[in-house]
Amino acid sequence: MKFLTTILFLFFFEFAKGQVPGTAIINHALFAKFDLSVTINDSSSVTFNINAVGGVGQITEVGVVYGIAKGLTTSSTLCRPSAGSPTFGSRIATISYSGATSTSLTVLSTSTVNSQGTNSFYVAPYFAKLYAIKNGQTFYGPEIEFLPNWPTQSQAGKTWVKANLGALRVAQSSTDQDSYGWYYNWGKPTDGHQFRNSPTSNTQFSSDTPTPGIFTCCGGNITEWQTTRNNSLWSGVNGANNPCPSGWRLPTKSEWETLFTTSPTITNSSNAFSNNLKFPEQMGRDRGYGTIMSSNTNNIYWSGDASNPTWAWFHYSGGGRVGGAFHPTYGAAVRCVQN
User: Fold this and answer.
1) Are 126 and 161 in the same domain?
2) Does 280 share its domain with 308?
3) Which helix (H) or strand (E) holds 314?
4) Does residue 4 form part of some domain?
5) For residue range 262-310, what is the model confidence (pLDDT) as tens digits?
6) For range 246-261, the mean pLDDT
7) Beta-carbon count within 10 A of 261 CB
8) Would you say residue 9 lies in a domain?
9) Which pLDDT tens digit goes with each residue over 67-76?
10) Tens of pLDDT, residues 152-199
11) Which of residues 121, 146, 171 is at a domain's end?
12) 32 or 330: which carries more pLDDT confidence?
């Protein structure tokens, strides 16, 4: 028993001294406590609970950075759907002090007001980090993922999110623009390119991590954003660019097809909306012009499995459901399913 206690003590001591991946070193000499937790009050309000206690030296500032992208820093700026250029995070507090401090910071959604006159976070994973400036250096705690607005529905043997990724709410009608969400190039991460007004470029990339904020399309009939496509970028929960939260992923082609044929079945855009999952007619983003497509294509949804890369489905206006491989330079909606 004594041996086990010693091992546990040594493990705790080494962990306390260790480096959190992607952050500055946090150890017992710099901070006796450096903790952040998130309380979700409702779909428009969260509370950050801070507990930061310094060791040697003076803490001159503490705060939280949060937003819809990973890897935020104090240089990250506020994310709003109406922003002229896409940005990804918010430095929500500056607290100057020294010594032991515990505090709570309640913040409202950083989204715009929707058509019902209410605020809501995106239907999307959010990420937050505690930071502190001490002895002139900025230190970050580990990244926390949280879901302030994540409605779900069990159907066809799976648990689905009940709204498009990036929507402000579940669709109230088939043409409810607050429910349309984001338009992703297939395989890209949530990096700002998915906003409907993001800038476009036909530049291709050799890596899996393109320049953030650029929707690839247009010019020269471009069909791929990578010089050599990686078919596994959205494959499963561990896909390198999986835009869904931890434990969630894009549906496979097979899962989509099971959903279509399980009562209540989905055969056209009308019963796609009347379905419990409330699929709106958000159209898609055209790969030739970068604009939102006309009403002859009512909705496009991506799948994620590597064995059927870039498979998507959509409805023609007044017609039936169509499925097949799409070029990754189209912009289409994402629905997440629990693994």
Assistant:
1) no
2) yes
3) strand 311-316
4) no
5) 999 998 888 899 999 999 999 999 999 999 987 666 788 999 999 998 9
6) 95
7) 11
8) no
9) 888 888 887 7
10) 999 999 999 999 999 999 999 999 999 999 999 999 999 989 998 889
11) 146
12) 330
Contact 169, 53 (CB under 8 A): no
- 191 shares a domain with 236: yes
Instruction: Classify burial at 47, counting beta carbons within 10 Å of its beta carbon; exposed 0-12, middle 13-18, buried 19 or more.
Output: middle
Which candidate, 222, 219, 224, places its Cα nearest to that of 208? 224
**What backbone phi and psi angles, to 5 degrees, belong to 124?**
-170, 155
Q: What number of CA atoms fall less than 13 Å from residue 264's CA on the CB side? A: 11
Tokens (6 digits) for 333: 């909606």
Residue 231 CA to residue 70 CA, distance in Å, equals 22
User: In 10 A of CB 339, how many CB atoms?
Assistant: 13
DSSP state of 277: T
Strands 89-91 and 59-67: antiparallel
Which residue, 97, 90, 86, 80, is CA-closest to 129?
A: 90
Q: What is the pLDDT of residues 7-22, one digit of tens each?
A: 222 222 222 222 233 3
CA-based nearest residue to 293, from 170, 165, 163, 183: 183
User: Of 92, 114, 146, which residue constitutes the final position of a domain?
Assistant: 146
* CATH number of the domain within which 71 lies: 2.60.40.10
Q: Is the pLDDT of residue 4 over 50?
A: no
For residue 12, tell me if it sits in a domain: no
Residue 3: inside a domain:
no
Residues 46 and 295: their CA atoms lie apart, in Å, by 37
Q: How confident is the model at residue 19, as a pLDDT?
A: 27
Q: Cis omega before residue 264 (within 30°)?
A: yes
Q: Which domain holds residue 241?
A: 151-339
